[in-house]
Structure to design on (287 residues):
């Protein structure tokens, strides 16, 4: 890898998280290639200085680091297989998507077959933290190349937690954290629904919690969305269904009884079945 200048980075997937990731990398002086299945999403970044490409193979051509920010393990695997003919031997692959335990194992094996240095690095945070370069990166992977990937993480996040040298540790931690986020979302949504159903102004729930030990930025953001009936997606119901299923599957493999996680999944599924899959997961309230 050329050490005289910043590495070239290919960002595969420029959706709600991937687009700001690409832009923040460019702002920090990296040369950024971008690709997205919906080409217009990648091309929209060109005005800001990112180079858009029409295929994954073209995007990774000459890239020292590949960053995948896609929906699930199947999507990531498919795109990386499309990119395979142009991958540089010894390039670094930073995998930001939430793919679960089996998924991360499949992708690590794919990286090994293509001679890539692989980092399991799912992120904590949704659209707004991504836009503000305030993501928390949960990173696992070999010590040897951490000095190369750390500036990448610094460009897109406010904190990097190195979980393990072993691939998969970060993906396991991400499932536990997602379960907590889902529990908070459902608890808030149901509490507001209960207040309204009992004839109490639901804004009073927020008023009482504000400034107390149960308050948080997350609580305030999701409460504001529910009260305003504004479900513009930061993290969609469809993605929540996918990730909640990964939590339930992982717990089953570990022999854990997770009634709250199972109820969380079913609630998201009900909202999706009602036609709200593209809305923010605060639309749990609509259940």
């Amino acid at each position: 890898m050329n050490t005289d200048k910043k590495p070239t980075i290919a960002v595969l997937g420029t959706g709600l998280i991937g687009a700001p990731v690409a832009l923040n990398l460019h702002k920090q002086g990296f040369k950024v290639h971008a690709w997205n299945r919906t080409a217009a999403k990648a091309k929209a970044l060109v005005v800001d200085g990112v180079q858009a490409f029409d295929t994954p193979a073209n995007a990774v051509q000459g890239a020292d680091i590949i960053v995948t920010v896609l929906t699930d393990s199947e999507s990531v695997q498919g795109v990386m297989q499309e990119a395979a003919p142009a991958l540089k031997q010894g390039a670094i692959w930073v995998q930001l998507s939430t793919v679960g335990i089996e998924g991360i194992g499949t992708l690590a094996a794919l990286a090994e077959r293509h001679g890539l240095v692989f980092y399991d690095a799912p992120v904590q945070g949704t659209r707004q933290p991504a836009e503000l370069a305030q993501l928390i990166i949960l990173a696992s992977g070999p010590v040897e190349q951490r000095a190369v990937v750390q500036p990448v993480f610094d460009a897109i996040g406010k904190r990097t937690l190195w979980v393990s040298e072993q691939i998969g540790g970060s993906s396991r931690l991400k499932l536990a954290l997602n379960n907590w986020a889902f529990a908070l979302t459902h608890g808030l949504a149901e509490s507001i629904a209960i207040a309204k159903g009992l004839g109490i102004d639901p804004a009073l729930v927020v008023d009482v919690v504000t400034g107390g030990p149960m308050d948080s930025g997350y609580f305030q953001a999701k409460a504001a969305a529910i009260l305003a009936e504004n479900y513009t997606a930061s993290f969609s119901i469809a993605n929540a269904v996918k990730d909640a299923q990964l939590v339930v599957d992982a717990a089953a493999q570990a022999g854990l009884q997770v009634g709250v996680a199972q109820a969380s999944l079913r609630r998201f599924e009900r909202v999706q079945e009602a036609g709200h899959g593209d809305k923010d997961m605060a639309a749990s309230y609509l259940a």
About this structure: The domain at 172-286 is CATH 1.10.1040.10 (N-(1-d-carboxylethyl)-l-norvaline Dehydrogenase; domain 2). The two ends are 51 Å apart (CA to CA). The chain has a mean pLDDT of 97. The chain has twelve helices and nine strands.
